[in-house]
Structures are given as C-alpha cells and as structure tokens.
C-alpha cells in the first residue's frame, strides 16, 4: 500500500494538508485511527480571527492573515458552504481589572491596521443587546468570523478525494521506520504502508507516534469542555469572548456553542460538573439569555499544545521526508489553510512562501 505522501491524522490540519497537496497533483493517502475529526477538530468553535484576547505571536502573523483569507477563498471549491458567519468578535470585560486585561489585545489589533472599536459598557450593550448589565467595557474586532468545523474538514477532504486522494479509517500507526534520510515503511495495525513522504498531523498523539524514534516532542493534551445549547432564533452574529478563553457563538442552525478554560489533566476524557458549572455561570452572567436555554450536549476535546504556544511545522532533523504539522493548540482551524499550503510548498517546491523557521522542531532540541 503506497502513495507519494501519507498523511497521519484526519483532523483539520491533516485534511488541509491533503487538500493543498492534491491541488498540486500529489498522490495522497490519509490514515485516520478513528473517524474524521475525532480529536480536537470535532470539538472546536472554529473561530478564524486576526488576533484575539491572547494576541498573535509575531512569528504567526503572516500565516494568520494568509489563512484568514484562504479559507474564504477556497470555500467555492468545496461541495457544501462552510456556514461562514462574518459578524466579527466582541471581547467583553466585566470589571475595570478585566478591561485593563483586554486593552493590550485591542491595541495589538489596531496596530495591525484593523479598524477595531473600543466601547464603554453602555455602548457595548447598545452594539450587542445580548450583553448583560455588568459589562464594564468591550472592544469589537471586525476581522473575525466562524465556520462549521465539520463542513471545513469534510470540505478539505472531499476536495482532495475528487483530485484522486484516498483515506483509510481504523488505521493506527505504530511506528514510522526510517532508513538514512528516507521513509522505509509505516507500521500499522493493518500492515505496512509505503510513501516517499510522511506528514505527521496526529495532534495530541504526535509524541506517541514519534516515541519509537526516541524523539521527544513537547506537545501535551489540553482538555476543553464544551456545551452546546438548544437552538433558538438568530440572536447574534458576533463571537462574544471573555478573559480566560471563555467564549460563545451562535451557529447557523441557532445553537449556542459555549467554550471553556484549558485544563492540563492528561488524557482524562470526562466531563466535570464543577468546571462546566463554573464557566457556564460566568458566561450566563455576561450573556443572560444563556441561563434560559437548555444544554443539549456536553463534550470534550484535547487541544495539542506546545510548551511555547507555537505549532510545529517542518521536517524532522533526522529525516527531511518526515514532516510534522501539529501542536496548533486551540487554533487548528485558524491556521489550517496556511499550514496545509506551507506543507504542500515544502514537499513540492522544497521551500515555503512564508518563513517557517520559528516552527521547526529544532527549537526544542538546541
């Protein structure tokens, strides 16, 4: 079983790599251990923003802007619309201390040339009536939208399949065998696979796949617990964010998606009532409507976070044909298109349009 490039991982990064490689005429085989989007990609708000409450590291800004525009541009190549909601993002503060906390993000957005707007509490409530009376201040970033994450990674994959790519499910990669500077074979629970190149987009499972090579990659799972509410009529097109990575969005179908804090608890895959109640209470305090909606579903996602909060994009020092594309943390959707494009350029052209030196794995081995 062979291909020009084998991609390990069927999340938004793996499918984006498959899409951009297929556009360049590369024969791609994608291997997924479970089902499409079974990792972090199936538990994301799919927010695509230029900057945010945590800011954007300088090294990522070019990829951020590129991906922001690419996702909108390539939607026409997909079978279904992405359910893009381009309402921008509102970052709210509940007191003066929080207002000081979001001010640097506002200033960064302005420095990037985005026409952001700072508002007092009364102005913010007029701008977004869902906000509660205790909102002290807010700023609006128009350069932000959200999509249906399932439509996005399915769109990447289906467009790649139309161009001759393939995908196999239930394939668990046990080891990637190297020989000199080449891929010898990929050992799996379903036999050996062969390819000239391997792209490892395994998310939180990337360290596990590389461990037989005695290569340590500092990617750790960060649990995020999520609430999906019942649907109601359209109330807002804004993403509404608070400090500590708390945010809500209303989907195209009318459900509200409530996102949570990040928890470093290993692979403990369970819902904890204390955490859910805590962040739901904070969000309902900021957006009172939420207290009147029933929760339909609680679920968990593990975000693959690197210790320096930058992704890993690039080849292993031990083998130039083994490319890692992982560690995007909470922003896999946001950087999916630019990551897929960069990986395709690296494999086809031997170089990338935008510098990726800051994302190479060597930064952890120096």
Please explain how this structure is put together.
The protein has 366 residues and is of the alpha/beta class. The chain folds into 2 domains: 2-76 and 149-218 and 307-364, FAD/NAD(P)-binding domain (3-Layer(bba) Sandwich); 86-142 and 220-306, 2-Layer Sandwich (D-Amino Acid Oxidase, Chain A, domain 2). It has 8 helices and 18 strands. It has helices at 12-23, 61-74, 96-111, 121-127, 149-162, 206-210, 273-286, 336-348, and strands spanning 2-8, 28-32, 47-49, 89-93, 117-120, 137-141, 144-146, 166-169, 173-179, 182-188, 191-200, 219-231, 239-242, 246-250, 255-259, 295-306, 312-316, 319-326. Strands 1, 2, 8, 9, 10, 11, 17 and 18 form an 8-stranded mixed β-sheet that branches. Strands 5-6-4-13-14-15-12-16 form an 8-stranded mixed β-sheet, sandwiched between helices. A hairpin with a 2-residue loop joins strand 10 and strand 11. The longest helix has 16 residues, at 96-111. The radius of gyration is 21 Å and the shape is globular. The protein starts with a strand and ends in an 18-residue tail after the last helix. The relative contact order is 0.20. The model has no long low-confidence stretch (mean pLDDT 94).
């Amino acid at each position: 079983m062979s291909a020009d490039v084998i991609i390990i991982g069927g999340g938004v990064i793996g499918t984006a790599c498959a899409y951009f490689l297929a556009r360049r005429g590369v024969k791609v085989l994608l291997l997924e251990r479970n089902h499409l989007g079974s990792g972090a990609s199936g538990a994301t708000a799919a927010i695509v923003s230029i900057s945010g409450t945590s800011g954007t590291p300088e090294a990522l800004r070019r990829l951020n802007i590129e991906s922001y525009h690419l996702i909108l541009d390539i939607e026409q190549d997909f079978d279904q619309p992405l359910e893009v909601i381009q309402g921008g993002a509102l970052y709210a503060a509940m007191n003066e201390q929080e207002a000081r906390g979001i001010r640097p993000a506002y200033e960064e957005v302005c420095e990037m040339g985005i026409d952001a707007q700072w508002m007092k509490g009364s102005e913010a409530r007029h701008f977004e009536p869902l906000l509660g009376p205790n909102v002290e201040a807010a700023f609006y970033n128009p350069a932000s939208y959200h999509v249906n994450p399932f439509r996005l990674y399915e769109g990447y994959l289906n467009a790649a399949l139309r161009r001759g790519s393939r995908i196999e499910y239930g394939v668990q990669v046990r080891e990637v065998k190297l020989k000199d500077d080449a891929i010898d074979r990929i050992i799996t629970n379903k036999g050996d696979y062969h390819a000239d190149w391997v792209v490892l987009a395994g998310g939180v499972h990337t360290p596990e796949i590389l461990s037989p090579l005695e290569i340590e990659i500092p990617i750790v799972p960060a649990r995020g617990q999520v609430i999906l509410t019942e649907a109601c009529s359209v109330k807002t097109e804004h993403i509404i964010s608070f400090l500590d990575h708390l945010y809500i969005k209303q989907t195209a179908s009318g459900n509200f998606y409530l996102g949570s804090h990040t928890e470093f608890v290993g692979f403990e895959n369970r819902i904890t009532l204390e955490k859910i109640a805590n962040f739901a209470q904070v969000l309902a305090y900021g957006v009172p409507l939420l207290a009147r909606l029933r929760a339909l579903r609680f679920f968990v996602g593990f975000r693959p976070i690197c210790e320096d909060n930058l992704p890993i994009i690039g080849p292993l020092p031990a083998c130039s044909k083994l490319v890692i594309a992982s560690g995007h943390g909470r922003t896999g959707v946001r950087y999916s298109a630019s990551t897929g494009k960069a990986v395709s350029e690296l494999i086809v052209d031997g170089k990338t349009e935008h510098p990726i030196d800051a994302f190479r794995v060597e930064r952890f081995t120096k």
